[in-house]
Specification:
This protein is of the alpha+beta class and 151 residues long. It has 4 helices and 6 strands. Strands 1-2-6-5-4-3 form a 6-stranded antiparallel beta sheet, covered by helices on one side.
Length: 151
């Protein structure tokens, strides 16, 4: 009986790991900090995104994150940097200021991207923007879209 329970426990552990394997560490931070004071969260799935080659868009903006919160998010982004297949990262004073990451393809075959920006804010706090995107769009198409919409 015990070997069956151990085998069942092993299979369950593998299943739980597989469920989380398709998520970025940054996506977990968006969920974790979505209810923080002042947090601005945007979640868009399907619909109008398809005309841009995207299927999911999740973003978190913390206009005045504490140093501890900003550091926790930066640690998650660092983990995503390590597993990214392509990356564009900018540092300032040893901290990640900007990151555009191409993550491994999702289980459903779609491309995944993480965009991170952290700027100093008033009174020692930091403005953090974290975006997790999934879709058919290439990194170049996504970068061009960002350039167009930021003008």
């Amino acid at each position: 009986m015990k070997p069956r329970l151990i085998l069942l426990a092993v299979f369950m552990a593998i299943a739980f790991m597989a469920l989380g394997a398709d998520r970025t560490k940054s996506a977990a931070m968006i969920e974790r900090h979505s209810s923080a004071p002042g947090a601005e969260v945007t979640v868009i799935k399907g619909g109008d995104l398809s005309r841009y080659g995207l299927s999911e868009y999740h973003s978190l903006t913390l206009p005045s994150a504490t140093a501890a919160t900003a550091d926790e998010i930066a640690t998650a982004v660092s983990a995503d940097i390590a597993s990214a297949t392509d990356r564009e990262v900018s540092y300032h004073n040893g901290r990640i200021k900007y990151a555009f990451l191409t993550m491994p393809t999702a289980d459903d075959g779609l491309n995944r991207y993480v965009i991170y920006v952290c700027n100093p804010a008033k009174s020692g706090r930091r403005r953090v923007v974290l975006i997790d995107i999934k879709g058919k769009a290439t990194a170049r198409q996504l970068q061009n879209l960002i350039k167009i919409t930021s003008k």
